[in-house]
Design brief:
heterodimer, A: alpha/beta, 9 helices, 40% helix, B: 242 residues, alpha/beta, globular, binds adenosine-5'-triphosphate, binds magnesium ion
């Protein structure tokens, strides 16, 4: 589904990704762990096409398409979803309004019929309920005044509504309380656990991986994948730290 | 009375397109509006064809006046309001100007709190693209015994291209001591992080910008007589800029 080959990328002329190679197949869940500043968020932004993140070498292929050749909104329509480490607040723009426009813009690019107001609202209600988020919050301006945990939950509601094929979730678990972590974990499984979907979880902690069990765990350090293992690698990292394992 | 043609050296015409003013010269007499004591007045002005509106508005004791402005059309569009408030009067201005190409759009106000206890509230939002110039010059004058004056000037401009110009000049001239005057002016650009966030959800760049600009001007027309027409025309104009 996703092939990243020898990816090099710079941010403000500073090399951050330095030859990263990673393959995700449909039906798989991968976790990426790694020290602060290793380049995990950078990887998610490069895949998402954020301006200012420049690819200097390598390729990213998504379902056979050259992802790097597409605009961010085209990547979304192709089935990519980014869960942000720091979801952005957008004053004055309501969640439901923007999500409906976004969903229909994606459908238009895919040559599908738009969702009617009623259809969209039904879908939004269903996903808000799945993530135990109050519908009223979904009517408020995007993330404005939301607590850290509420923002993360909102990311997952958005993912549920947009129904992507590939989700890259950057520290979706950080900021969540113990109960919210279970709700979000169950939400990820229910939305993304399917033979034709894949998930890349960026996380610092084992906790989320208890709910969303990864098929592979990678360690990203200094812009590269330096180690790959199964679910047990996360436990080992938690017990022993990066220095011991990835050095 | 024949006024001389203003030049850019005249403070109130500092950013004006003088050639356009000259073409329209001599201007018709300003419109004079008197709102009687205790009265209610509302006016909606949509400037679509490049005209100069000059209004002298006197608001009697305890009376209210609300003016809504959408300044979007023509090469040069100017709305000039000279407002005088008497005891306990209330003045509200909600104005949006949206310019592209080489348009020059301006809103010039002088609000005089001549007597105590009056309130004035001006909200102005400008969106400027390409080589457009949008200006707000707003003077609030508070007379010597106009105690308990409460005056707000809330002025924001959004510049979509580096080649566009926004001028914002809220000004206070206060001769009383027991007054509350809040004025703020900001000029900004669309938040790039927010635009990427919206794009990452599938919104094409133009749609994302339009959504954010819609939010930027939202609320200004609340309660306007022709609120729907204002909103529709503002959105249509924004749609053409992004
Ligand atoms: N605009 C920028 N200019 C220069 N350096 C940047 C810029 N943005 C990020 N960086 C640097 O890139 C490196 C990688 O950052 P990134 O956010 O990808 O790390 P991360 O692995 O996600 O870390 P964390 O675990 O703390 O979230 C950091 O050293 C960071 O300081
Ligand atoms: Mg990060």
């Amino acid at each position: 589904m996703l092939q990243i080959e020898n990816l090099h990328a710079t941010v403000g002329d500073k090399p951050i990704l330095k030859g990263l190679t990673l393959t995700l197949n449909a039906g798989e869940v991968h976790a990426i762990m790694g020290p602060n500043g290793a380049g995990k968020s950078t990887l998610s932004y490069v895949i998402g096409g954020r301006p200012g993140y420049e690819v200097t070498q390598g390729s990213v292929t998504f379902n056979g398409q050259d992802l790097l050749d597409m605009d961010p909104h085209e990547r979304a329509a192709a089935g990519l979803f980014l869960g942000f480490q720091y979801p952005v607040e957008i004053p004055g723009v309501s969640n439901v309004q923007f999500l409906r426009e976004a969903a229909n813009a994606q459908r238009k690019l895919r040559e599908q019929e738009p969702l009617s107001g009623g259809e969209f609202l039904k879908l939004a209600k269903e996903k808000a309920a799945l993530l135990k988020m109050d519908m009223e919050m979904l009517k408020r301006p995007v993330n404005v005044g939301f607590s850290g945990g509420e923002k993360k939950r909102n990311e997952m509601v958005q993912m549920g509504i947009l129904d992507p094929a590939l989700a890259i979730l950057d520290e979706t678990d950080s900021g969540l309380d113990i109960d919210a972590l279970r709700v979000v974990g169950d939400g990820i499984n229910s939305i993304m656990r399917a033979p034709d979907k894949a998930v890349l979880l960026i996380t610092h902690y084992q906790r989320l991986l208890d709910y969303v069990q990864p098929d592979f765990v990678h360690v990203l350090a200094d812009g590269r994948i330096v180690k790959t293992g199964g679910a047990e690698l996360a436990k080992q990292l938690e017990a022993e730290g990066y220095e011991a394992i990835a050095a | 009375m024949t006024n001389p043609l203003p030049s850019n050296r005249n403070e109130a015409w500092r950013y004006s397109d003088i050639a356009a003013v000259e073409a329209a010269w001599p201007l018709p007499d300003p419109e004079n509006i008197m709102v009687p004591a205790g009265g209610d007045f509302a006016r909606a002005i949509i400037q679509e064809s490049g005209t100069i509106h000059q209004i002298n508005l006197t608001i009697g004791a305890g009376a209210n006046a609300a003016i809504h402005v959408l300044n979007i059309g023509g090469a040069y569009g100017r709305i000039e309001l000279n407002v005088t408030l008497h005891d306990g009067a209330d003045f509200n201005l909600g104005a949006v100007q949206i310019g592209g190409e080489t348009q020059t759009l301006e809103i010039v106000t002088t609000v005089t709190h001549a007597e105590p206890n009056a309130t004035s509230n001006q909200i102005v939002r400008s969106v400027l693209a390409k080589k457009a110039t949008g200006s707000y010059l707003g003077k609030v004058a508070v007379a010597r015994d106009a105690q308990k004056t409460d005056s707000v000037q809330d002025v924001k401009a959004m510049v979509l291209d580096r080649t566009a110009t926004a001028n914002a000049k809220p000004e206070l001239e206060i001769f009383a001591d027991d007054v509350q005057c809040a004025h703020g002016a900001t000029v900004g650009e669309l938040d790039k992080q927010a635009l990427f966030y919206l794009a990452s959800r599938g919104l094409p760049p133009a749609e994302a910008k339009k959504l954010m600009l819609q939010a930027f001007v939202a609320g200004v027309f609340d309660g306007a007589q022709a609120q729907e027409e204002f909103t529709d025309k503002a959105l249509a104009k924004l749609g053409g800029l992004v």
